[in-house]
Request: fold
Amino acid sequence: MVEMNGGGASIPRAQWHTRVTGLVFAWMVAAATTAVFRDHIKDSSWLMVHLLLLGAVTNALFIWSWHFAGAILRVPQADRADEIMRLAVLNLGVAAVLIGATTEAPVVAVVGVLFVGAAVVMHALAIRRAARRSLPSPYAFTADAYLLASSLLVLGIFLGGLMEAVGFDDATKARVVLAHVTFNLLGWIGIPILGTIVTLWPTMLRTRIAPNAAKLARRVLPVMGSATVITAVAFGFGLRWLAALGLLVYIAGFVATTLPMLAVARTKRPTSFSTISAALGMLWLIGTLVAFTVRVATSADVTGLAEHSARLVVAAAVGGVLQVLLGCLSYLLPSMAAGGPSIVRYRNDRAERLRWPRLLLTELGLLLWVAQMGNATLALALLGLLTSVVVITLTLRTPSKETAAAADVKRGLPE
Reply:
């Protein structure tokens, strides 16, 4: 139910996250459908990656970066009117970009790019305003990560729009594509993931954050932002060795940020689907980054890198970004939905259903696909991920108090 208050829209937190998660999952399903029917769809790889990253992941980042920024900065988020507007502008823009690019209608695509850019600017300004009126927080670096990522996405969006509006020759377009991917994947997606996982990871493990985690993240954040810009600019000008150096610095920052995660995991091992999926996703991200860096350093030039590295980009998106996202959602959504402690425990148990088959399908499919064992193997990985989407969606149902109490008794807890 939406309550109007002074021109605003007040939606209870549980209802809000249940509804907007459907938006994220819808884009995921569209990406998976494209992958399954890729032989019958023009530019299917481009479409699948953009449905996933521009559609599903960007929506998730809008929703959850605003949520975490509000929680960390202690800013009320009862009025959803502005957030609804930002998501509406974003999704109209995403739809226009995808329609324009796939139907060879550059004007529609460029209008879509402008809409997406406007949504990103509105999102960043909202976080900036929240930061200005908040009390000091040791975890404010998370909001800083979101602001930095938004600025890098604007640059990536600009390059995407430029490619739709201008007819580049093949060599120039390859360089622009690499710069575009760098800003979007390393900047818009990689930096917010790291900025969030620093504090969310110990929470998922139900333990305390490592003492040096926040300080280390604050120091590494500008280094990773600078490395992203250097790498993108180097790609744009065809400077292969400078791009490789920028990637190495980014990887060093990535590893440094995750060291406190490893320290926490040694004391409290990840055993749930949420923590295992997030950990595997981080491994895929760092693994594909290292593989891509090696490819950049050993290539004759950057012209052919965009085409030859497309498989690594998909692996980073599906194996890395999507696994981290689903792991986090598997932890967050059961507790965000309505209900008391017993109902949350019930949902958490339900989120673990088919845990190992889901993970095995995803990892096996991805490994076989990266090894070029056929496009059908990617469908295997997506089947595992879509099963997780279904399982997570089903956890949002609110059980009766009797059902939740019976589960507690079975678990050995008092009634």
Notes: The two ends are 32 Å apart (CA to CA).
